[in-house]
Amino acid sequence: MNIPEELKYTKDHEWVKIEGDIAVIGITEFAAGELGDIVYVEVETEGETLAKDEVFGSIEAVKTVSDLFMPLSGEVVEFNEELESSPETVNSDAYGEGWIVKIKFSDASQLEDLLSQATYKDQIGA
């Protein structure tokens, strides 16, 4: 299972890539595998400022719907619109083209609450 070392993770199986004051967010390969075939990604919070742990969208797979939680407080500045026509990209390229949103985070101290690769691996038993 691919769990890139340069990313940070949440207990809710989101990954976070920091690019200056922007955080790129997606779900982990583990989460995508657990969900199965993803058929729809919904994010209606673009342009909104949300607190850490608030729901920013949802992912629908063939058998279930799962909420997406903000790993950091901030403004949702971009949604990956490619996912509207190709939601399965989250399954095939979770850490690349399958990113879900970009946020401008507002509290850098919250980065310390994110999990390292090793801690996330322990959580999922990898």
Notes on the protein architecture:
- With 126 residues, the chain is an alpha+beta fold.
- The chain has a single domain (8-108), classed as RNA polymerase II/Efflux pump adaptor protein, barrel-sandwich hybrid domain (OB fold (Dihydrolipoamide Acetyltransferase, E2P)), CATH 2.40.50.100.
- Helices cover 18% and strands 35% of the residues.
- The protein contains 4 helices and 9 strands; from the N terminus they run E-E-E-H-E-E-E-E-E-H-H-E-H.
- The strands form 2 sheets. The chain has a 6-stranded antiparallel β-sheet with strand order 1-2-3-9-8-5.
- It starts with 7 loop residues before the first strand and ends with a helix.
- The mean pLDDT is 97.
Layout of strands and helices, then pairs:
Elements: E1 8-9, E2 14-19, E3 22-27, H1 29-35, E4 38-42, E5 49-50, E6 55-61, E7 65-69, E8 74-79, H2 82-85, H3 89-92, E9 101-105, H4 117-124
Antiparallel strand pairs: 1-2, 2-3, 3-9, 4-6, 5-8, 6-7, 8-9
